[in-house]
Amino acid sequence: MILMRRLLPLLALPLALSGCSAFGGTDDGDGVEVATAFYPLQYVTDQVAGEHADVSLITQPGRDPHDLELTVNQTAEITGADLVVYLSEFQPAIDAAVDTNAEGATYDAADAVDQRLFGEGGDEHAEHAGEGHSEEEHSDEEGHEDHDHAEESGAEGEHDHDHGTHDPHFWHDPLRMADLGDEVAEQLAEVDPDHAEDFRSNAADLRTELEGIDEDFASGLAECERSTVVTSHDAFSYLDKYGLEFEAIAGLAPDAEATPAHIAELQELIREEGLTTVFTERLAPSAAADTIAGDLGLQSEVLDPIAGLDDETAEEDYASLMAANLEALRSANGCR
Asked: What is the mean pLDDT of residues 285-310?
């Protein structure tokens, strides 16, 4: 017993010397630590940071980011990071942790991208091409509209996922992702000014890649037999800039349940439009989409919302998943 009491201070010594604390991570100054809230933000930040930062992901692979509840370790990531990149009103738990626990710089992706109001059509942003994305572009009247998205989609249970007035799924527009990359470069430059030019160069390279993806979608979906797409939940509206019209079985929340009346309306629409495919998605229930497809003799295919990776997509990235989505849409819509 006496020997154990003598050893305890020695056992604790390595922890004390490491500079670790319960929520502070390390303070050894070995590099910039960036915590990102969910996968698309991690992808952009990692591409821009390059070798100059350690970019971590708070929402672990296989988890739906909508439903994130923070663990002690995840809160520690936010507390100890030199920079936290998140999207306000998308993950309330992270919003709260950023407000109360973040000790370093924080950046809200909503400040970088022009998020659409719920129900806003793609033609209302057809001029968007990586420039001028201030929220002030919306009129005060638009900004205060109360969009009852659950009622529009015929889904029940939307109150469990209150994302405010804007559609958060901006990452399906590659040009908005490029805008985010430019802004993340500036945030990293403030945290690590010695590598500012590298960050800006990496952001420029990322923009070139993302503009290529945008061009692929525009040309790949230019001539199609059909334009209507039925999906599990309302996560793909930003893709309507390419001439698509999306109809969701559920609303914004992946676990929302569609009403029988809404399902009947969708079945009638599917018959009228001659659709061949109903899209399910990873990280979300597929029962309703599978049932509709089975009842009508349609194909059931995956359209990835790219909000997070899982075991099946662990070796993929944003670019490859967008390419897979494009091919799935082309096949379903009979594109030439």
From this structure: 91
Q: Among 226, 239, 237, 224, which residue's Cα sits nearest to residue 271? A: 226
- CA angle (222 as vertex; 266, 182 as ends), nearest 5: 95
d(Cα 146, Cα 295) in Å, to the nearest integer? 35
Give every CB contact of residue 36 below 8 A, 6+ residues apart in sequence: 42, 45, 55, 56, 57, 58, 84, 85, 86
Give which of 118, 75, 85, 73 is closest to 237, Cα–Cα: 118
CA-CA distance, 93 to 196, in Å (whole number)? Answer: 31
pLDDT at 307 over 60: yes
Q: What is the DSSP letter of 115?
A: P
Cβ-Cβ contacts under 8 Å for 58 (sequence gap 6 or more): 35, 36, 37, 38, 68, 70, 74, 77, 78, 94
Q: Is residue 318 classed exposed, middle or buried when 0-12, 13-18 and 19+ CB atoms within 10 A define those classes?
A: buried
**Contact in structure between 46 and 61 (CB atoms under 8 Å):** no
Amino acid code (one letter) for 185: A
H helices present in 169-280, as ranges: 174-191, 196-220, 260-273
Asked if residues 179 and 130 have their Cβ atoms less than 8 Å apart, the reply is yes
Contact criterion met (CB below 8 Å) for 222 and 330: no
CB atoms within 10 A of CB 173: 26
Per-residue pLDDT averaged across 166-171, rounded? 95
Average of pLDDT values for 89-97? 97
Q: What is the pLDDT of residue 30?
A: 63
Cα dihedral sign, 318-62-91-70: negative
